[in-house]
Amino acid sequence: PDRYAVIGHPVDHSKSPEIHAAFAHQTGQKLIYERLPAAPGAFKTTAAAFFADGGAGLNVTLPFKGDAAAYANRLTDRARRAGAVNTLARGDDGTLLGDNTDGIGLVRDLEHRLDIPIAGRRILILGAGGAVRGVIPVLLEYGADAVCIANRTLSKADTIARDFADLGNIQTCALTTSANGWDIVINAISAGLAGEMPNLSPAILENTHGAYDMVYADQPTPFLRWVADHGIERRCDGFGMLVEQAAESFMVWRGVRPQTAEVIAALRPGSD
Ligand code: ATR
Predict the structure, then answer these.
(1) Predicted ipTM?
(2) All domains of the chain, ordered by start, with CATH?
């Protein structure tokens, strides 16, 4: 069977092997999917050895998404835009295609689980890191009316806005903004991981239909607890985005799109 793996540092807690095993089982595809740890600085040698040994594809996670973009022979438009690759696929001629399925993963999860179509929406994103760079082009491609990036370091938000200005209406503001009227508020601040959120103005949630945290955990995240306290009923964490980006990678590799809902339900942290 074809061999796939997730490469990163660290990868021992990655859920990708379980997710892809569930997809393979569901679709009747025969494949092997493993974890491939690589020391910082060793992405290229580790990936090269994997493909030389017959590997068919890699998922790429932190901190190697930029290295993977440089390593690929060809990039999809969405990967080039993001400057980051989370999916490498070996073609029949041996060349490597680099793709980025993070943005489409977010859009699918917003539409499926949060039940809010993106077209025409005004979206506030908190944070301006690598993850935001990956998703903004796709939000605009799917017809978001406006995206505002709120970040502690405003210059980082401004740089992203400038880089993607040709794709649509992108604004920036301070993290302490009280601007409102956002249909969807998305958290992409990694501080959420450590269990703390910076002080945000509850005013940003006025007239908001749903809130999304790109982070996930087996407990409600600090951001989702905060929005719940302010009366936002439609809330989702990023576990669905993880499964959706994996489904899109599976599609790139195997040409088959798995059903995600049952896999999200079965593998969600805290579900067993
Ligand atoms: P990722 O790849 O997950 O996006 P990243 O590139 O390290 O991670 O970006 C982290 C984001 O979280 C940034 O927007 C960062 O804000 P700055 O650009 O101002 O550094 C934000 N962040 C991290 N810790 C934060 C904190 N304590 N308060 C506010 N924002 C924080």
Answers:
(1) 0.96
(2) 2-100+240-267 (3.40.50.10860), 103-237 (3.40.50.720)
